[in-house]
Amino acid sequence: MLAVSKRVKQTKPSYIRNILKVTQQADMLSLAGGLPDAELFPLDILTQAADELAQSPSIFQYGATEGLTELRQWLLEENGAAEDVLITTGSQQALDLIARSYLNPGDKVLCEAPSYLGALQVFDLAEAEIHTVIAEADGPNLAQLEQQLANYKIKLFYAVPDFQNPSGHCWSLSKRKAVASLLAKYNVALIEDAPYRQLRYQGEPLPTVSKLSSYAAFHLGSFSKIATPGMRVGYVRAKQALLAPLIKVKQASDLHSAQPMQLMLLATVRHPSFTEHLDKLTNTYRTRRDYLAELLQQQLSDKLEFNVPQGGMFIWARLPHHNAMSLAEAALRQKVAIVPGDEFWPSNHTPDYQAIRLNFTALTEPQLEQAVSRLKKALLQCSPMK
Amino acid sequence: MLAVSKRVKQTKPSYIRNILKVTQQADMLSLAGGLPDAELFPLDILTQAADELAQSPSIFQYGATEGLTELRQWLLEENGAAEDVLITTGSQQALDLIARSYLNPGDKVLCEAPSYLGALQVFDLAEAEIHTVIAEADGPNLAQLEQQLANYKIKLFYAVPDFQNPSGHCWSLSKRKAVASLLAKYNVALIEDAPYRQLRYQGEPLPTVSKLSSYAAFHLGSFSKIATPGMRVGYVRAKQALLAPLIKVKQASDLHSAQPMQLMLLATVRHPSFTEHLDKLTNTYRTRRDYLAELLQQQLSDKLEFNVPQGGMFIWARLPHHNAMSLAEAALRQKVAIVPGDEFWPSNHTPDYQAIRLNFTALTEPQLEQAVSRLKKALLQCSPMK
């Protein structure tokens, strides 16, 4: 049998993928995924955008690896920075392209702990050495961050400053500035992954960390959470010289991303009704967040500890008395899926504490109520840790 | 500045990409690309397929890494084999996923010489050691193939048996069988890349080499040449166990390929008029192939040596008297773009002979006539090799 590569062997498997068959059962309620609610997709706008494809037949030809010029221009205008932009097959691909462009096996990458599983998988595939810094409610622990940067030759720092997956944390302005200046001091490049940035339910947007950075920075954007994920359109914005190797890797990886998707996406976000759609989306998600938080507070406050996130898709709940993996298994038996916190630490790290991630965007309020009642049963069945 | 990875540094750059700005000039005629003719895209069918997207709103949600079930089923029915199929962002991505799944740095890969540049780039990125076997008109030189397999621990053999890019060669049935049995004898896996298989202008289809193989084999398919390339839908067919690591890598790379593109593609190839479209396409390309061959024969037979390929997109012409790179440069000055043969040998190999690749699918007959007349001028200006 053909032996698989070392990079594949050491890549962390995905818990969500492993339980996929179970979570797809009709009577299962899932708080596990990171799915937007399909009922809220802007289908009218998308249909109109699909109808207009035939007016631009050239998008059916091979295109530039960088992406569709009109979409790139729109993204650069939006930002106004002296940067360039590369369109990718979801922002996930941007992350993979950065890793392949800049990391040799053994290179050191710093991530928040907990961190997005998809990023950990990318760094595993790049055979990087993953270091962590504790994610606090207002951003990474600065003393530990400086210690890591000073003691190890860290090449890239991966972070989700806006409503992090899984913790929901949003970095404060002062921590954003402090991180930017520490990265500049130690010549460490930043990967700022911002898929949830536009899902803000309260407070004012803060500047991106990449904008505050004076050293190399990549800003990753996604349309999966605000438009639709199935179209797989994302992007990475950075200085042109930083993007050049990514373009070379992307050319060998897939030549370019699907052009009709890029055009449909542009027509969608430019549509006069898109702001209205976005308002409806954030209003619905805010209500669901509040509803889930209230249910947890009322019914499970002695078993779960959590903050209400200002945005994003998840409530991250610490378990003072229970083991997360055992709870996740008990929950599946009660027909509710959750993700145990272990999933968000690198393979060779032990989680700092027990926690679970609960999604509040995919289920309606009655479903959330039902899910929490099942979770409660699971918690009652699950013996507390000694 | 952030240092790029070793894999990127050693990846062969693309000549076509390097001359892109020049070839995009309005008065340039390009025989250099591998583009299908956009005028022949099945726009009516595609428009209808786009209109139907709204009837399947679930495709706008996140989907399975493996691809859309309906498209996968259709591809497996078409083939009827006890295999599985993974949908990729063009067959280029399938190649990259195989390399990342199975190759460690220093692993040995065998390619035909000349070979598809995009494959050489993928193997460079995987830091593989590339070996070559001479591509003859009816397939690889068998003695040299066996010698390579016997003397080196080759892990993968990459080949394009149907109307190879760049040579246009189509392997004979006896060589297909001989290669399959040699690969089984030495336990070497096959990557059969078949983007041109359906662009056959004469003769009967031969069995795929992967079907004749008893050892591990991947069959790569594309819709770029028969439907449209801008949608980026391709696939790889193989035994399920062989695809499992590819799925793991693809999940980290981009989660999945754009679902609306997969559905549109399926609706397109299933459309009752698609066969008619395919007939029109192959008839037009056959006429252009014949026309270019006639022009070259009449005007340049003392300077170029070539066979008329039975299918595909290219005439591969040997240059008995000229240097290909100098000719390509002289041609650009005459406003016609061609690809020098050097491009199709791995970075550290010297081409076995001087040659150029001429595309016949992208230009109309009057344009081909004009292009050959410019090429003739370039040949006259270019000093013969000593």
What descriptive keywords fit this protein?
homodimer; 386 residues; alpha/beta; Aspartate Aminotransferase, domain 1; Aspartate Aminotransferase, domain 2; 8-stranded mixed sheet; 3-stranded antiparallel sheet; 15 helices; 13 strands; EC 2.6.1.1 (chains A, B); PyrdxlP-dep_Trfase (chains A, B); Aminotransferase_I/II_large (chains A, B); Aspartate aminotransferase (chains A, B)
Can you give a write-up of this model?
The structure is a homodimer of 386-residue chains. Chain A is of the alpha/beta class. Chain A folds into 2 domains: 6-41 and 275-381, Aspartate Aminotransferase, domain 1 (Alpha-Beta Complex); 43-270, Type I PLP-dependent aspartate aminotransferase-like (Major domain) (Aspartate Aminotransferase, domain 2). Helix content of chain A is 42%, strand content 15%. Chain A is built from 15 helices and 13 strands. In chain A, the strands form 3 sheets. Chain A has an 8-stranded mixed sheet with strand order 2-9-8-7-6-3-4-5, with helices on both faces. In chain A, strands 10-13-12 form a 3-stranded antiparallel sheet. In chain A, helix 9 (173-185) links the parallel strand 6 and strand 7. Chain A is globular, with a radius of gyration of 21 Å. The model of chain A has no long low-confidence stretch (mean pLDDT 95). At the A-B interface, helix 1, helix 4, helix 6, helix 7 and helix 11 of A face helix 1, helix 4, helix 6, helix 7 and helix 11 of B.
